[in-house]
Design brief:
single chain, 259 residues, alpha/beta, Rossmann fold, seven-stranded mixed β-sheet, three-stranded mixed β-sheet, 9 helices, 12 strands, binds zinc ion
Length: 259
């Protein structure tokens, strides 16, 4: 297997004509290059690079055909691979900041109740919901999807508790977020209070902190969740990551409410 991968990357690096062609996992179109996010990894400060933040792949971000982004593709692949979709028919789903392709797939599977939550928007499709104050009873939802949302939330531990509260016993939540593998503790400071400072220290103007992976996962456990960390390599190959433009370092944080 290692030999095969070495050969694959040697070919990729030296002779483009022998590289496997890339494609968007979602729209299935061939892709010469995925588009980068805000200048790609080159635009990151040395400080941010040292933090070793695992999040979106800034160099292989958008699909030029359907505009889906890497973390949506990665989750779509994960849901296919782990048969997550089997949880959808006749069940209650809460989806924060819903990605359009995941949303369309969920709709096609006839959930009993599908709440699409947005922080700011309220219309016939979206319900304005603050993750720290979810207006539903305990044990309402069979699945919660919250993909790269908690890094935007000041009181994220209340958000975790709220997701736990509304999740039914036996329910599953997918709680992806960018995390640093260098930091022992989360990094934030009240004086980092301008767009310029937040962009410099947190990576985006609308992020509230840099999560430590260790702290984030401990917080999930302390909330009461049963936590499963599924690595990209547990379910996909490195070649998959290259072809579909997803981050091979991004793990999947799948949690369950057992009691
Ligand atoms: Zn696409």
């Amino acid at each position: 297997m290692i030999k095969k991968l070495n050969s694959f990357f040697r070919q990729k690096n030296t002779n483009n004509t022998t590289s496997p062609s890339r494609e968007c996992y979602i729209c299935k179109n061939k892709v010469t290059n995925f588009t980068s996010f805000r200048g790609g990894s080159k635009s990151k400060s040395t400080y941010l690079k040292h933090l070793n933040i695992i999040g979106s792949d800034r160099d292989n971000f958008g699909c030029p055909n359907c505009n889906c982004i890497d973390r949506e593709r990665h989750l779509f692949m994960f849901f296919d691979k782990t048969n997550f979709w089997d949880n959808i028919p006749n069940s209650n789903i809460l989806h924060f900041a819903p990605e359009s392709n995941l949303m369309n797939k969920i709709h096609s599977l006839s959930p009993k109740k599908y709440i699409k939550a947005d922080w700011l928007i309220e219309n016939e499709d979206y319900q304005k919901i603050d993750v720290t104050n979810i207006p539903y009873d305990d044990n309402t939802f069979d699945s919660v999807i919250c993909n790269h949302v908690l890094e935007h939330v000041e009181d994220y531990k209340i958000g975790m508790s709220e997701i736990y509260r509304v999740l039914s016993i036996g329910g599953i939540a997918i709680l992806q977020t960018p995390v640093s593998r260098l930091l022992k503790n989360n990094f934030s400071d009240p004086n980092i209070n301008t767009n310029e400072l937040r962009k410099c220290f947190y990576g985006q103007v609308d992020h509230c902190r840099v999560f430590s992976e260790e702290t984030f996962l401990n917080d999930l456990r302390n909330t009461g969740f049963h936590l499963e960390v599924i690595k990209h390599g547990d379910v996909f190959s490195e070649e998959d990551a290259y072809i579909y433009g997803v981050n091979k370092n991004e793990d999947f944080f799948r949690v369950k409410k057992l009691k």
